[in-house]
Design a protein that fits this description.
single chain, 154 residues, four-stranded antiparallel sheet, alpha+beta
Length: 154
């Protein structure tokens, strides 16, 4: 059942809440598919100060349920990045809504294709949205699936 939520652009004040969502999703959801040392290494990239840097260089969105940030996603050129939903909000259409907003941003920017470095955990999610796997990428023993989707102009 879809949650009642709003999506808006993130600002620096959102960084602690975004960090919290990402770290919770990594530790609770992605930990099913990745070793603890990989989760810890990835998590180092999403401390509040690092999230502030991302907000300055990417188009970052947040999903709010009331005043609580429950999800985030960003667009960097044609690359979809940091799509995470709080574990207790997963399975309610939040990720799908985020991706719809990201696609709208991409279309308005004139992009014809979106690419995403998917985790093993999220591959099925992106597949349901029309993304196809084009290759695997490895950072040590961390497997990422590079996926892409051609956008239809509106």
């Amino acid at each position: 059942m879809p949650l009642d939520c709003d999506i808006r652009h993130a600002g620096p004040d959102d960084a602690p809440a975004i960090s919290e969502v990402i770290l919770a999703a990594l530790r609770e959801t992605n930990a099913r598919d990745y070793a603890p040392e990989i989760i810890a290494r990835i998590g180092e990239n999403f401390t509040p100060p690092r999230v502030v840097e991302l907000i300055r260089t990417r188009k970052v969105l947040v999903v709010l349920a009331g005043q609580r940030v429950i999800g985030t996603a960003s667009l960097e050129g044609e690359w979809v990045r940091t799509v995470f939903v709080a574990p207790d909000a997963q399975g309610n259409g939040v990720g799908r809504r985020l991706m719809t907003e990201i696609e709208d941003l991409a279309r308005h920017a004139g992009l014809a294709i979106l690419r995403v470095p998917s985790t093993v955990t999220a591959e099925r999610f992106y597949g349901k949205l029309g993304f196809t796997a084009v290759r695997d990428s490895y950072h040590g023993d961390e497997r990422t699936i590079i996926m892409e989707r051609h956008l239809v102009s509106l």
